[in-house]
Structures are given as structure tokens and as C-alpha cells.
Amino acid sequence: MSRNFPLNALRVFEAAARHASFTRAGDELGMTQTAVSYQIKLLEETLGETLFLRQPRQVMLSEAGERLAPKVAEGLTKLAEAVADLRGAAEQKLHIHSTPTFATQWLSRTLGDFQLKHPTIAVRLSTSQELIDFTREEADVSIRWGKGDWPGLTCHRVMRMDFAPMLSPALVETIGGIRKPADLLKLPIISPLDIWWRTWFSAAGIDDPGLERFPPNELGVQTIDAQVAMAGQGVAILNPGHFRAEVAAGQLYQPFELTCNDGRDYWLAYPENRRNILKIRAFRDWILATMPAAV
């Protein structure tokens, strides 16, 4: 069918045929009787057939109109069903994009509660360190690390990104305990190029910790740094809020209460024009209600 075919006129024709009235068709479609008449005339000119017999105070389908009407009604019904099916499927699946650490340390442990509260919403979770572009990606919402100032997005802070040194209790024993921040420098430092280290040591009163003497490893994500630390292979700089379970299990130890924050936290973000989508509202309300008890 030519792209110039007046498809909207078919919708107007179906309503006019069903009501046997241009006026009532206009009332249903939010159009004037004149606009309906124009669309019908446009369709008739395109098809080269008279579709309605105009009579005083009423219109009747012509023979050509009688043949066309049921086919158009059937086609519009199938189209409406296809759109409803697609919309329904989209409404029932929530695509969450998250940083790997947040997904592993928090979402994976709590999504079951979201599913219990919203059993009709399926969840797809994808992870990466990159900031996704909602105009190019299929994600509905994103958990991002930053300042929450992304243009065009509605953002809600969901977790403070504080940081402090953490290590295995067994590693602590190898040097007879840790009593002051400088004691940490007696042990291997994991990811010493991470800018959090200098920030924390400076706050602890050590302006030049000499981190350059450690192998300049960059492991990429907190979950890997934490795994290395739990294996007793060094001290990691981590967000304690992510690793409460590991601390409780005796796998990680935070030797000092001092934590720092560089102004970047975890945020729930989604396009402003999608803020009223039901599945997005459901996830937003759930995570904002759940996070205060968990962080």
C-alpha cells in the first residue's frame, strides 16, 4: 500500500459505516462532521469509488461501501489486537540496566521481594559500567553512579556511595592487628590507582601514602576488588553499604569507622517522559521504599 494512502481515512470510514452517521462518527473520534466528511471524500477519491450515498439528514453505505466496511473493520480490529499484545508484553517486562556491583550486591539479593509484590512484571537485568543512552537502548530504568544531573532524566538517589578500606580478618592477623591507618600500608593495596585511596588516606591524616610503590592493578569493579580482599590478598577500598552481608559473615572487616564520599552516589534514572509508565512507577516506588532499610 502506497505511503500516500490515507490510512486515517479508513478509521474514519469504519466509524461512519458503523454509526451510519458522519456526526456520530465525529463524536466518537473527536472530530467535526466537516472533518469526517473530508476524510470520507479523500478516501473515495483515492479509491475511485463512492462509499456513501448522501441523503437528507442521513448517509447510507453504497454497494462499494458495503463490500469495504467489514474488511476495514476486520483489519482495524487485528491491528488493535496486535498493538495491545505488543503493549501488554512491553508492560509486563521491566528492563533494568545497572552497574555490575549494584546488581550483584544489592539487586540480586532483593529483586525477589519486588517480584513477590509485582508478580505480573517480569524482570530483565543487564549490567555494564557504561552510561546507557535511553534513546538507543531498550532499558526502562538504569542504576547509575554519579551526581544525578543527567539532562532529560528523572533521577532518585538510592544509595550513598561512601568508601573505606576493607580486608579479610585473616589478613589483619598476619601483621598482628591494625591500630592506625598507616598500618594498612604494610599490606598489599588492591587497585592503588583508584582515586578513592588518596581521598581516604588524606581524610585519615596521611597526605602521601606512597601508593605508587604497589603494582598499579586496575580490577575494574568493586565486586572483584572485594573477592580479592576476601581471599586475603590485599586491602580494598569499597562501599561498606554493599558488603554488609560479607562483614556479618566474617569475610570482610572494616578497621576504621571513617568513610568518605566524593559527591557521586547511586541513582535510579529514567526518561522524564516515561515517569508515569506503570512498571517504572512500580519499580521506583519499591526501590525507594526498600532502600532506607537496607543502606
TrEMBL record:
Q: Which PROSITE patterns match?
A: HTH_LYSR
What Gene Ontology molecular-function terms does this entry list? DNA-binding transcription factor activity; sequence-specific DNA binding
Query: HTH lysR-type domain: from which residue to which, for each copy?
Result: 5-62
Q: What are the boundaries of the signal sequence?
A: none
Q: Tell me the InterPro entries matching this sequence.
A: LysR-type_TF_proteobact-type, LysR_HTH_N, LysR_subst-bd, WH-like_DNA-bd_sf, WH_DNA-bd_sf
Keyword DNA-binding in record: yes
Specify whether DNA-binding is a keyword of the entry. Answer: yes
Keywords for this protein: DNA-binding, Transcription, Transcription regulation
What processes does the entry annotate via GO biological process terms?
Answer: DNA-templated transcription
Top-level lineage group:
Bacteria
Question: Record's family?
Answer: Belongs to the LysR transcriptional regulatory family.
Per its record, how is this protein called by name?
Answer: LysR family glycine cleavage system transcriptional activator
Source organism of the structure: Shinella granuli
